[in-house]
Write a structure and sequence with these properties.
The complex is a heterodimer of chains A (454) and B (272). Chain A is 43% helix and 15% strand. Chain A has 15 helices and 13 strands. In chain A, the strands form 5 sheets. Chain A has a 3-stranded antiparallel beta sheet with strand order 1-2-3, with helices on one face. In chain B, helix 12 packs antiparallel against helix 13. In chain B, strand 3, helix 4 and strand 4 form a beta-alpha-beta unit. Classes of the chains: A alpha+beta (454), B alpha/beta (272). Bound molecules: iron/sulfur cluster (3 copies).
């Protein structure tokens, strides 16, 4: 028995953000154990935020993730405004949405073109793919560039924007600065339509293994908008709560094998956040062209195949371009770049839709505006348990595959989620399993592993 | 530092480039992927042999150029950086984490066990070092590129300089110079807004003052900054609270010597 058991190990997952590893034990009777190991070193954001000024929260939390800094900034400022009972409306609210559109575009396009598409066509990376499919890669880079142009104009720069402030912005753009981007955005929107059609035709693996084990999809829902910055937290199983209620319904668990905390719904366990969840709960609120294209390619909701996240992402990119153009078309600069902010002893929280899914922040501040506690729940820790479930459910139907092919499939299943493992607020110790004997040991003791083989 | 080496091109027709991540947010390596216009032509000139964020193909070392992002914060980081150095002809550290400890170096001024207890339910699962250390604190580094995040154009310049065996053209002057070159009105002089620009390394293009905001020094110190004088001005003329001065010295580059020393002096003053 024992000698027939096999182990798949991917010591170093490529093309995901940050660091993680996968450990699966299986034998002829089935899958015994699945551990997605996230071993990003802890960076202790929640601890180091204490004592810092409330105005610094968007600058500091941006540094949690270089790929989706805007998501952290948006969640932080909304949580602070919740504490201070401020509601930036009108043009300020629209500008924030516009900034978030930019991040959705550039982050989704990074994932689609550089991390995910090569999987479907059998390339190790986008550069290799570009040799045979230059148009696809070049167009994807053009689209991404347009997203970055939006973030740069409103935020000051692509990575870790400097212009996001509690109450609004430090400076707001003039209308002509925004209209100067219209031609580029329209061109990129056209390329995105092609991208949607292209991704609809990709060969998606089957998802029969998920048929009897439905996901619980969790995403924000807003009465009139595709969700980004605000809305109620809803789920496909009927959850409907405000962000204030988040911690009453969701729990975090610290497991030994992963540096990311595992989140569960207290009532029901694992759940799924991210593009597929957003799409399934909000498809009818997609922009007209995105919705029309979804109909045209016969892509309905709910989408139950996790491998189709690439298609949902491209539809969301199209949505983001349409929304951005719509906002720019109506933009009138606000009278003041930000509302007046006066600190006071208070607590606040907020949830927004990061490209990878729901992101929750809560802060307590004192009368001088110094942060006394901070809590941040990133999308990846929320999806982690669902990723492990996917692998556990999926593997039995693919056991006849040769090992390398099986391993590739597991990596792809993880990459569907675009797990942003560098969201290290909650991510603890680093270890690489290297060699058979050591792996179990290091998992238990937290003993650090070795560098990758050279 | 580059001059006594063989030209890379003659020893290896396509130089091998590796990108390594230590404790970081990935933002600096992302800056490379954000080079939408240059990425494919860069890939034609170098062999991107190791770049886990972007490729599942991993080639064997040694490498001609290693770009290292992030700081050293775990026992495993400690071992891995030695191996990276052994495998690399030139090692270039990129970003505030790699050059000055990064935001995670705030632990160096605190009790890391207390930090761990605050964040994790089971602190015993965690192996982390008491301090976050820049790469140069562990191994010899051939060039340091500052910034949180680094500027992608400066990164391309540095790579190109090493490929062509010349000194990288990365200015050491202050953000103020770039601010003037950009034609900004000084927000400190005009509005009394506290600004770290006079002591901060150029490279961002003076973004913050252009957005009506004081520089918070994410590029770290310029060459030979007079940080003490700057803090004195903030304190005496602008009436900035001591805690805010310390916060500005201790955010993304807390271990840069001129910031560290000054922040410690200020902290002590505050406590006296
Ligand atoms: S220096 Fe800043 S941008 Fe670069 S990796 Fe560190 S935190 Fe991220
Ligand atoms: S605004 Fe700041 S960076 Fe610009 S000149 Fe004044 S002090 Fe220097
Ligand atoms: S904080 Fe200073 S160095 Fe950083 S972007 Fe702003 S102006 Fe540039």
């Amino acid at each position: 028995m024992a000698d027939r058991s096999k182990t798949i190990k991917v010591d170093y997952l490529a093309r995901v953000e940050g660091e993680g590893a996968l450990h699966i034990d299986y034998d002829d009777s089935g899958v015994q154990n699945v551990q997605l190991k996230i071993f990003e070193p802890p960076r202790f954001f929640e601890a180091l935020l204490r004592g810092r000024d409330y105005l610094e929260a968007p600058d500091i939390t941006a540094r949690i993730c270089g790929i989706c800094p805007v998501a952290y900034q948006m969640s932080a400022v909304h949580a602070m405004e919740n504490a201070l009972n401020l509601k930036p409306g009108g043009a300020l609210r629209m500008l924030r949405r516009l900034l978030y559109c930019g991040e959705w575009i550039e982050s989704h396009m990074l994932h689609i073109s550089m991390l995910h598409a090569p999987d479907f066509l059998g390339y190790p990376n986008a550069v290799a793919m570009a040799k045979d499919h230059p148009e696809i890669v070049k167009n994807a880079l053009e689209i991404k560039k347009a997203g970055n142009a939006l973030v740069r104009l409103i935020g000051g720069r692509e990575v870790h924007p400097i212009n996001v402030r509690v109450g609004g912005f430090y400076k707001v753009p003039e209308a002509r600065e925004l209209t100067a981007l219209v031609a580029q955005l329209e061109m990129a929107r056209g390329l995105t339509e092609q991208l949607v059609r292209w991704s609809a035709a990709l060969p998606f693996p089957s998802y029969e293994w998920r048929r009897d084990n439905h996901y619980e999809f969790v995403a924000l829902t807003h009465p009139s908008e595709y969700p980004m910055n605000e809305g109620r937290i809803t789920s496909s199983a009927g959850l409907n709560i405000s962000a204030q209620d988040y911690e009453n319904h969701f729990a975090e668990e610290h497991v030994a094998h992963s540096t990311a905390l595992h989140c569960t719904l207290r009532e029901r366990g694992a759940y799924l956040v991210g593009p597929i969840a957003r799409y399934n709960l909000n498809r009818d609120k997609l922009s007209p062209r995105a919705l029309q294209l979804a109909e045209e390619i016969n892509f309905t909701a709910p989408c139950l195949n996790p491998f189709q996240s690439i298609l949902v992402r491209s539809l969301e990119v199209l949505h983001a371009f349409e929304e951005a153009l719509h906002i720019i078309d109506r933009y009138q600069p606000p009278a003041e770049p930000h509302l007046k902010t006066e600190p006071r002893t208070a607590s606040g929280c907020a949830a927004t839709e990061a490209p990878r899914g729901l992101l929750y922040h809560r802060y307590d501040i004192d009368e001088k505006g110094k942060i006394t506690t901070a809590k941040i729940v990133a999308p990846t820790s929320q999806n982690q348990k669902t990723i492990e479930d996917d692998l556990r459910l999926m593997l039995p139907s693919f056991m006849h595959f040769p090992e390398d092919k099986l391993q590739g499939l597991c990596e792809r299943a993880i990459r569907n989620y675009d797990p942003c493992i560098s969201c290290s607020t909650h991510f603890l110790q680093l270890h690489l399993n290297y060699g058979q004997a050591q792996s179990k040991q290091s998992m238990v003791t937290g003993k650090p592993g070795q560098p990758p083989a050279r | 530092m580059v001059s006594n080496q063989q030209p890379i091109a003659s020893s290896n027709p396509t130089p091998k480039l590796a990108i390594w991540k230590f404790t970081s947010c990935d933002g600096c390596q992302l800056s490379l992927l954000d080079c939408e216009d240059e990425l494919l032509s860069l890939a034609a000139q170098v062999d991107i042999a190791y770049f886990l964020e972007a490729s599942s193909e991993v080639k064997e070392g040694p490498f001609d150029i290693s770009l290292v992002e992030g700081s050293i914060t775990t026992p495993s980081d400690e071992e891995r950086i030695l191996e990276v150095r052994r495998q690399s002809r030139f090692l270039i550290s990129i970003g505030a984490c790699a050059t000055a400890g990064g935001i995670q170096a705030l632990r160096n001024f605190a009790d890391v066990q207390e930090f761990t207890d605050v964040v994790y339910a089971h602190p015993e699962y965690i192996a982390t070092l008491k301090e976050s250390t820049p790469i140069s604190g562990r191994v010899a580094v051939d060039f340091e590129l500052q910034g949180c995040p680094i500027n992608k154009h400066q990164l391309l310049e540095v790579i190109s300089a090493f490929l062509h065996r010349r000194a990288p053209q990365v200015a050491n002057h202050s953000v103020c110079i770039d601010c003037k070159l950009r034609g900004n009105v000084c927000i400190w002089v005009a509005h009394g807004t506290p600004c770290m620009g006079p002591v901060t390394h150029a490279g961002c293009g003076a973004i913050c003052p252009s957005y009506n905001r004081g520089c918070y020094a994410c590029y770290g110190p310029k060459e030979n900054p007079n940080t003490e004088s700057l803090c004195h001005w903030w304190d005496e003329k602008l009436n900035v609270e001591n805690t805010l001065i310390v916060e500005n010295l201790r955010n993304f580059n807390p271990l840069a010597p001129s910031f560290k020393v000054q922040s410690e002096d200020r902290q002590e003053d505050g406590e006296r």
